[in-house]
């Protein structure tokens, strides 16, 4: 069980508040990619690893027909409640991104927040094949991934308020150079007003890909591959975060 996406699901939007605030700008960039690279009009979108629906709902606000898919029901339940509160019609479904049942149903498929790096070299081919099957001809797959993974052995401690609770979060990273794997470790302490403290340990293993590696891994599954940097939303700029853009 992954605590961040299950037990701590109701704190996810609080922990990633800064990320959520940047999502409208990110979607502006993604829409630019839709216009520039998709070979068909983008109306129906599948958002993989959608979590609590932060980007999913932003896409829906802009008039797209969006389906959000995630492994964790706890995250999806939050996404559904947010959708209802906003009066948006978004379908949230539980599923594995590498085993999609859809066949040529979507104009675009998105995968945000470095979720693609959870797939190692053996599994990422299954993901690409699954995405390819779900895309319509000329559809586009967009996924972001970081390259400049910086190990941080010294813990970084920060805090955030959630109503009358306070979360104290300790992050650190350990890099396996030979395996190109980053171990992202986190301790989340939840301080209640009555002095009660609960603590959770999170350990994510992410796969480090260079832009060249990502391009080579995807090329057998799509007709056209591009890698963009997203600095100031200018396509093609150098940046520490990259976007895989793959057209069927």
TrEMBL record:
<dbReference type="InterPro" id="IPR041698">
    <property type="entry name" value="Methyltransf_25"/>
</dbReference>
<protein>
    <recommendedName>
        <fullName>Methyltransferase domain-containing protein</fullName>
    </recommendedName>
</protein>
<dbReference type="InterPro" id="IPR029063">
    <property type="entry name" value="SAM-dependent_MTases_sf"/>
</dbReference>
<feature type="domain" description="Methyltransferase">
    <location>
        <begin position="45"/>
        <end position="139"/>
    </location>
</feature>
<dbReference type="Pfam" id="PF13649">
    <property type="entry name" value="Methyltransf_25"/>
</dbReference>
């Amino acid at each position: 069980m992954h605590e961040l996406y299950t037990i701590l699901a109701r704190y996810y939007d609080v922990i990633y508040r800064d990320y959520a605030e940047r999502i409208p700008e990110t979607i502006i960039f993604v829409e630019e990619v839709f216009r520039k690279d998709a070979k068909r009009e983008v109306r129906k979108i599948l958002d993989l690893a959608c979590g609590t629906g932060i980007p999913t709902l932003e896409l829906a606000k802009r008039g797209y027909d969006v389906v959000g898919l995630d492994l964790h029901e706890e995250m999806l339940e939050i996404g559904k409640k947010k959708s209802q509160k906003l009066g948006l019609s978004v379908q949230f479904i539980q599923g594995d991104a590498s085993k999609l049942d859809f066949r040529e149903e979507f104009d675009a498929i998105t995968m945000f927040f470095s979720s693609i790096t959870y797939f190692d070299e053996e599994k990422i081919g299954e993901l690409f094949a699954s995405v390819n099957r779900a895309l319509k001809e000329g559809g586009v797959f967009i996924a972001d991934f970081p390259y400049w993974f910086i190990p941080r052995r010294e813990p970084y401690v920060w805090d955030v308020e959630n109503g009358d609770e306070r979360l104290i979060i300790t992050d650190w990273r350990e890099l396996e150079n030979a395996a190109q794997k980053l171990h992202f470790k986190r301790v989340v302490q939840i301080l209640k007003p009555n002095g009660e403290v609960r603590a959770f340990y999170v350990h994510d293993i992410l796969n480090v890909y260079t832009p060249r590696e990502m391009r080579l891994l995807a090329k057998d599954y799509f007709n056209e591959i591009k890698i963009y940097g997203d600095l100031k939303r200018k396509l093609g700029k150098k940046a520490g975060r990259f976007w895989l853009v793959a057209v069927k």
